[in-house]
Design goal:
Blueprint lengths: L2 H9 L1 H7 L5 H15 L5 E5 L5 H8 L3 E6 L2 H13 L6 E4 L13 E6 L9 H14 E13 H11 L7 H6 L4 E3 L8 E4 L1 H10 L3 E7 L8 H10 L1 H13 L12 E7 L5
Pfam family, one: Methyltransf_11
Organism: Paenibacillus lutimineralis
Keywords: Methyltransferase, Transferase
Length: 271
């Protein structure tokens, strides 16, 4: 990732810690935890690549996994250490490094790897392929990888309520029907948005077998305003929707049109 991306996350470390507590982003968090529960091995070494301030690592540590945090932003990694210590937990290691430099990790060591953010920000295809191939290398045979992409199709839908003024230019709408690269002036920082077709193809080209994929926001995708209103006005309805959306995040009728696409893949024995 570039210094632009590093600078963004250094500056917004605390915001990233709170982001997944937002009523709408909580759907993404709960759906991802659902996938971890369904598909990760029951124990072992996990490398959280692009760990941010440690939200997922803390959940893994609570469940008894041996977790290594691998993060570009020194400030986010420092915050993760603080939060993990406050929770009375202990991580296996903290590595402050760019996800394009996974060669520093040992081969065939991890039972699972999470790549839940870096691929959002690597606009170079060769570099994305390298990250996926390196994730394959560091996994044990039979190990599970979980990759997350920002889905251009889902962003297009969310934009109707979140940035509809941009659609005064009709070409802007059609841009989101294909993969798209944004600089910090158009995206929240330097970004790469995939389509589900392209994202799955990249993971397969990395040597993995895809087990399943999910749309993190499920049937609530693009409904930030309504979801937030229900959180404030009717917590029972909100909680029920949150549970149902996370439980059904793999449903094919929803998963191709959500903002976050999550792919579960495996390194088969003998690979």
């Amino acid at each position: 990732m570039s210094e632009v991306v590093r600078g963004y996350y250094d500056e917004h470390a605390l915001q990233e810690w709170h982001r997944l507590d937002d009523p709408y982003s909580r759907i993404e968090f709960m759906s991802t935890l659902t996938l971890l529960r369904r598909y990760l091995p029951t124990s072992g070494h996990v490398c959280d690549i692009g760990s941010g301030p440690g939200k997922y690592a803390i959940e893994l540590l609570k469940q008894g996994y041996q977790a290594t945090l691998f993060e570009l932003s020194a400030r986010e990694l420092e915050l993760a250490q603080i939060k993990i210590q406050e929770a009375g937990l202990h991580a296996e290691d903290y590595i402050c490094e760019d996800a394009r430099n996974l060669h520093v990790l040992n081969s065939s060591f991890y039972d699972a790897v999470l790549v839940l953010g870096p691929l959002y920000h690597v606009r170079n295809l060769v570099e994305r392929h390298s990250i996926i191939q390196e994730a394959f290398r560091v996994l044990k045979p039979g190990g599970v990888a979980i990759f997350s992409y920002i889905n251009a199709w889902g962003v297009l839908k969310a934009g109707v309520s979140e940035f509809s003024e941009a659609y005064r230019d009709i070409e802007y709408i059609y841009d989101y029907l294909q993969e798209i690269e944004l600089d910090e002036n158009r995206g929240f920082t330097e970004c790469y948005f995939a389509t589900p077709v392209e994202a799955r193809a990249e993971v397969l080209q990395g040597g993995f077998e895809i087990v399943t994929y999910a749309g993190a926001e499920g049937f609530l995708a693009g409904m930030r305003t309504d979801v937030t209103r229900l959180y404030r006005e009717d917590r029972t309805v909100y909680d029920n929707l949150l549970q149902a959306a996370s439980d059904t995040c793999e449903s094919p009728q929803y998963r191709d049109a959500t903002e976050h696409l999550v792919i579960v893949a495996v390194k088969r024995h003998g690979d």
